[in-house]
């Protein structure tokens, strides 16, 4: 193993048997289950229609714009967007598996480059779909998702810079932050479902303009980011009590994510397959 490979691998914390380590693994597995369902939906619903050019088939699912007859560039942007959506969702899960990083660093590097490219395309393309094509229901939602795009671009740049400079501990932190905000679109769907199951949909407006909609418009990226930040701090320098507190937070978060993911599969994704 070269020096670079050795420092690369040592950037990942040793597998730990403490509660924080266990809770983080559980939370990751819940996210993985939910994101694999999202990936399966994108592959089964959007890939056949987008790759065969049957763009009109997108509109069998409720969308703000989706396919618009005569809007060639808008439809093309949408097609690229949904094709890249599966790449980033599946690719992010692969990047976080320690065994892959340790055993096959080349896979991590190439998948990492693909992940960064898809992050760039989805955030810039998403900004164009929102503001250029005018795909939005209300301004809070449009600003919330635009903030997410800016966070993705900023964290992708930081993660890339740190990796290029071989600062792997720093790279891991920025990469985790990037994963948190790049998962915002998925998190929003899961968040709606978990909230709907718990409250019957309190605060959700007809045009997605209720108090909960406004909250989730920004919380879809800021909440996962805040939890990631708390986890990173507790992991690096937390007291045993703080670590256990964050472990409980991650465990509860994991259960909520599982419930929301099952709800999203049943209500949002599988009915269109
Ligand atoms: C980075 C991860 C992202 C993923 C995985 C993703 C995924 C998707 C998917 C699957 C759709 C199809 C709609 C659906 O079936 O639910 C979609 C549509 C869309 N996305 Fe994204 N997206 C991402 C980022 C973004 C960003 C950052 C923006 C805006 C800045 C954005 C703006 C849009 C817009 C405007 C649509 C069209 C919605 C419609 O017509 O109903 N996306 N995205």
UniProtKB/TrEMBL annotation:
Keywords in alphabetical order: Membrane, Transmembrane, Transmembrane helix
One Pfam assignment: DUF2306
TM region(s), chain numbering: 25-47, 76-100, 112-131, 137-162, 174-195, 215-234, 246-268
Signal peptide span: none
Stretches assigned to coiled coil: none
Protein name: DUF2306 domain-containing protein
Superkingdom to which the source organism belongs: Bacteria
């Amino acid at each position: 193993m070269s020096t670079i490979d050795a420092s690369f691998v040592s950037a990942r914390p040793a597998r730990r048997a403490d509660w924080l380590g266990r809770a983080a693994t559980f939370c990751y597995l819940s996210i993985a289950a939910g994101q694999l369902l999202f990936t399966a939906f994108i592959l089964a619903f959007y890939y056949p229609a987008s790759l065969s050019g049957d763009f009109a088939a997108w509109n069998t699912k409720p969308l703000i714009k989706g396919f618009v007859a005569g809007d060639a560039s808008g439809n093309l942007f949408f097609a690229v967007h949904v094709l890249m959506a599966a790449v980033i969702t599946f690719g992010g899960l692969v990047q976080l598996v320690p065994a892959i990083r340790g055993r096959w660093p080349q896979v991590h590097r190439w998948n990492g480059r693909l992940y960064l490219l898809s992050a760039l395309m989805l955030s810039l393309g998403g900004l164009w779909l929102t503001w250029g094509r005018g795909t939005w229901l209300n301004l809070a939602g449009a600003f919330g998702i635009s903030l997410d795009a800016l966070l993705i671009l900023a964290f992708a740049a930081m993660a890339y810079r740190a990796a290029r400079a071989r600062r792997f501990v720093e790279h891991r932190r920025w990469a985790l932050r990037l994963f948190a905000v790049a998962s915002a679109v998925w998190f929003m769907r899961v968040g709606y479902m978990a909230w709907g199951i718990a409250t019957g949909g309190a605060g959700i407006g007809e045009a997605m303009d209720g108090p909960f909609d406004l909250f989730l418009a920004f919380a879809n990226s800021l909440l996962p980011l805040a939890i990631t930040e708390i986890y990173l701090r507790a992991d690096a320098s937390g007291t045993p009590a703080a670590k256990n507190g964050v472990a409980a937070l991650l465990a509860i978060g994991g259960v909520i994510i599982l419930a929301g993911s099952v709800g999203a599969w049943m209500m949002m994704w599988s009915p269109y397959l």
